[in-house]
Amino acid sequence: MQSRGNPPRPSTRTRRRAIPALLIATALVLTAVIASPVDAGHRRSTPIRGAGEWIDVRLDIEDPTDGARYVVRGRTGSGKTKIRLQVAGIEGQRGRTFGVHVHVGPCVEGDGAAAGPHFNITGGDVVSPETEIWLGVEIDRRGRGRSRSRVEFEINADIAKSIVIHEQPTAPDGAAGARLACLPLQFG
Ligand SMILES: [Cu+2]
Predict the structure, then answer these.
(1) What distance in angstroms lies between residue 174's CA and the mean position of ligand 1's atoms?
(2) Percent helix, strand, coil in the chain (nearest 5)?
């Protein structure tokens, strides 16, 4: 017999109902916590996207970016721009760094010059990773690389149309050798 002092144990049925309800409540709270700061912080910002295969701007040579794939994700607004770049399919280049920048012109197959100069918020007076968007990637043993840039200015589709990958790492003056491939940037 149960002693009178013990509180009644919840039935198995009640506990079975309580556990899924608790899980759903936890999921809702987590979703709200994760979603709210992003929404609040970027209410007036524009998404930046890009994905697919690089556009080959050097058709005359075979290079490691031929057939490689990329994903670009970012946001621009409130005086800031954040971009992340992931590349894959650059095989046999472990440890090599390719210079990558946002350029002002479009991607045109076989025509690296069409991408124009780097986007530069000072109009070219000061060249640095703070005045331009540099996304150099170091390639790992699986043929992948990733990079990110965060700068204190905004860009849009009129002034920044592409990301160009060059054959060399970026020097302090912004030079990075020949243009190998190009990624179209999309806004919105
Ligand atoms: Cu460049």
Answers:
(1) 8
(2) 20, 30, 50
CA 99 to centroid of ligand 1, rounded, Å: 7
Q: Which residues surround ligand 1, an ion (CB under 5 A)?
A: 101, 164
- Within a domain: residue 3? no
pLDDT of residue 67: 87
Nearest by Cα to 100 from 36, 48, 174, 41: 174
Is residue 62 a part of any domain in this protein? yes
Q: What's the pLDDT tens digit per position in 9-56?
A: 555 555 566 656 666 565 655 555 455 444 444 468 999 999 888 899
For 128, the token pair is 């640095």
Global pTM exceeds 0.70? yes
In a domain, 17, yes or no: yes
Structural domain contains residue 1: no
DSSP label of 65: T
Ligand 1: distance of its center to the CA of 117 in Å? 7
Distance 118 CA to ligand 1 centre (A): 6
> 144 alpha carbon to ligand 1 midpoint, in Å?
19
